[in-house]
Amino acid sequence: MPPQLKLSAITLDCPDPPALAAFYQRATGLPRHPDSDADFAALTFADGLSLGFQRVDGHRAPTWPTQIVPQQLHLCFAVEEELDDAEARLLELGAGKPDGQPREERWRVLTDPAGHPFCIIRK
Prior knowledge:
The protein is α/β, with parallel strands linked by helices. Helices cover 19% and strands 27% of the residues.
């Protein structure tokens, strides 16, 4: 059997890594990696997985639900609070809520300040 791959990082392109890291840090409570800087910032999960943010000049935000600029990937987060409460908290932190919410009773699609779609789902 070949060696198994272990996911170690997910990195999002964005125009301002420290700002996007700050949004996700407030949303998740994860600590910022000490080597974060203006070009690359990361948050670290207890199991070692990191969520990174990499500066890309000319970044074009995804246009979900249209595919004019494809989302390419999206993150999903389980929340313990009610979806309405989690959504309100994240909107207050700077998230956006696009039109076209499929199955809004089960999950919500939001966008981070750089335009990346992410979902919240009740744990």
